[in-house]
Amino acid sequence: MSNCRKEDMLLYAVTDRSWLGDKTLAMQVEEALKGGATFVQLREKHLDKEAFQKEAVEIQKLCRKYHVPFVINDNVEIAMEIGADGVHVGQSDMEAGSVREKLGPDKIIGVSAATVEQALQAEKRGADYLGVGAVFSTSTKEDAKPLDHKVLKEICEAVNIPVVAIGGISQDNVLELKGSGISGIAVVSAIFAQKNIKEAANRLKQSVAQIVKE
């Protein structure tokens, strides 16, 4: 039984400090939550542990206020210390089985996958959902070649856990993912680089709801 509900995966917001301007990350995340983000992943590559932990606690509070699952990218240790809802790990970070041993049975574990084989392996080892991509070319991962949407569909059909499409998704191309079988989309700049974060989240959510329903 997966620890995350399919409907929680609809609009999965991944944080990025690149577009903070005069706002704090927490302010931006709250805007996204007000706009309808259904899941939040805190991704920090360059903060020291103390600052990361402080920020994680702050954003976790917000997610609880809006009743939205909160996971941390890669950092299993901080996720455990603050009691986050779970973690998201890449293929090379730590395999799902050993993360599950550390976090226990009730936490959400998300794993990145780009092939049917990786997807099945992650599911077998206890992943609750998969992040699959990059489905379009993306500026956040320069070296990521876009994944054929046929493969995305094959992955969705091969596993019984929710699949979230990630990578280069925007308001302009999101409808191209129709018919793939995804439970939702994970976005960074499509929310956080927008002038009006709340409105951007709201529009994206409506578009994805349309795709997922079909």
Topology:
Layout: E1 11-14, H1 25-34, E2 39-42, H2 49-65, E3 70-73, H3 76-82, E4 86-89, H4 96-103, E5 108-113, H5 116-124, E6 129-133, H6 149-158, E7 163-166, E8 184-187, H7 189-192, H8 197-213
Parallel strand pairs: 1-2, 1-8, 2-3, 3-4, 4-5, 5-6, 6-7, 7-8
Shape descriptor reads: globular
Helix and strand succession? EHEHEHEHEHEHEEHH
Residue fraction in strands: 15-25%
Q: Tell me roughly what share of residues is in helical segments.
A: 25-40%
Radius of gyration: 16 Å
Classification by helices and strands: alpha/beta
Q: Report the strand count.
A: 8
Q: How many discrete domains?
A: 1
The major beta sheet can be summarized as:
8 strands, parallel, barrel
**Which regions have little confidence, pLDDT < 50, spanning 5+ residues?**
none
Offer a few descriptive terms:
TIM Barrel, 214 residues, 8 helices, alpha/beta, thiamine biosynthesis, 8 strands, thiamine-phosphate diphosphorylase activity, EC 2.5.1.3, eight-stranded parallel β-barrel, magnesium ion binding
Written description of the protein model:
The chain is an alpha/beta fold and about 210 residues long. The chain has a single domain (about 5-214), classed as Aldolase class I (TIM Barrel, Alpha-Beta Barrel). About 40% of the residues lie in helices and about 15% in strands. It has helices at about 25-35, 50-65, 75-80, 95-105, 115-125, 150-160, 190, 195-214, and strands at about 10-15, 40, 70-75, 85-90, 110-115, 130-135, 165, 185. β3 (about 70-75), α3 and β4 form a beta-alpha-beta unit. The longest helix is centred in the first third of the chain and has 17 residues, at about 50-65. The mean pLDDT is about 95. GO terms for molecular function: magnesium ion binding; thiamine-phosphate diphosphorylase activity. It is an enzyme of class 2 (transferase). It comes from Roseburia porci.
